[in-house]
Specification:
With 226 residues, the chain is α/β, with parallel strands linked by helices. The chain has one domain: Rossmann fold (3-Layer(aba) Sandwich), CATH 3.40.50. It is 37% helix and 14% strand. It is built from six helices and seven strands; from the N terminus they run H-E-H-E-H-H-E-E-H-E-H-E-E. It has a seven-stranded mixed β-sheet with strand order 3-2-1-4-5-7-6, with helices on both faces. Strand 4, helix 5 and strand 5 form a beta-alpha-beta unit. Helix 3 (65-84) packs antiparallel against helix 4. The longest helix has 25 residues, at 98-122. The protein is globular. The two termini are 29 Å apart.
Length: 226
């Protein structure tokens, strides 16, 4: 894949955040869930601890736990410094400060790292990247994608978005994507054309307001079903 760890900025979110971002109900945690482009999120680790069924996939899983941990240490202060310099770009509510944000993220990433080596051997961390996933049709009930699609609209083309969502829908009966803003906080230019093309291909789409908002206006997810 040619992925270089120096090009990655690890930043992981928790199961509690996932529940709000993706409007997950407690009963939905019983589903077989795929977390795409999951990075060092603790969702799969926390699901496993609760004896639920989740698999994470990301190209970063080609690296060892120590390599990922070192990269987290290298980038942490840079991220927090950037957040402090742009306080008005975020909604400070449940998380009240950049330092608290850092602690929330570090806690999630540590949970991931604690589970990672064992999880690799168990097959719940899979080295793979969109739009080509090594899973069978409808292997999962639900696919999630956090802070990747639409977030990097300048780097990922409209065609990539369409192919990636089609692929997630191939391996899962339903796909949910959050947020729908690009990394600058502006609405992604690919959202409406992506929805239009998916609908042309016979998929059902819904833009749903959720209870999670850290970027102003970033409180919506896209739900896609075949």
């Amino acid at each position: 894949m040619g992925l270089k760890l120096k090009d990655i900025v690890p930043w992981g979110r928790s199961l509690a955040e996932y529940m709000r971002m993706f409007d997950l109900k407690p009963v939905e945690l019983e589903l077989h869930i795929l977390d795409c482009a999951s990075g060092p999120a603790s969702f799969t680790a926390e699901m496993t601890k609760m004896e639920h069924d989740a698999i994470a996939c990301d190209p970063i899983y080609s690296f060892s736990a120590s390599e990922i941990a070192d990269r987290i240490d290298e980038t942490y202060e840079v991220i927090i410094t950037g957040v402090k310099a742009n306080l008005d770009s975020y909604v400070w509510g449940e998380i009240q400060s950049p330092n608290e944000l850092g602690q929330v993220r570090i806690t999630s990433m540590r949970k991931f790292l604690e589970d990672y080596a064992i999880g690799l051997k168990a097959g719940r961390y899979v080295t793979a990247e969109l739009p080509n996933l090594p899973f069978s049709d409808r292997q999962f009930d639900l696919a999630l994608c956090s802070h990747f699609l639409f977030s990097y609209s300048e780097l990922l083309s409209l065609q990539f978005h369409i192919e990636a969502i089609e692929e997630m829908c191939r391996v899962a009966g339903e796909t949910r994507i959050f947020p729908l803003l690009d990394i600058s906080g502006e609405p992604s230019p690919w959202l409406e054309p992506t929805i239009a093309e998916l609908q042309k291909r016979g998929m059902k789409t819904e833009v749903k307001t959720v209870s999670y908002e850290f970027q102003p206006g970033g409180n919506k997810m896209l739900r896609v079903k075949i």
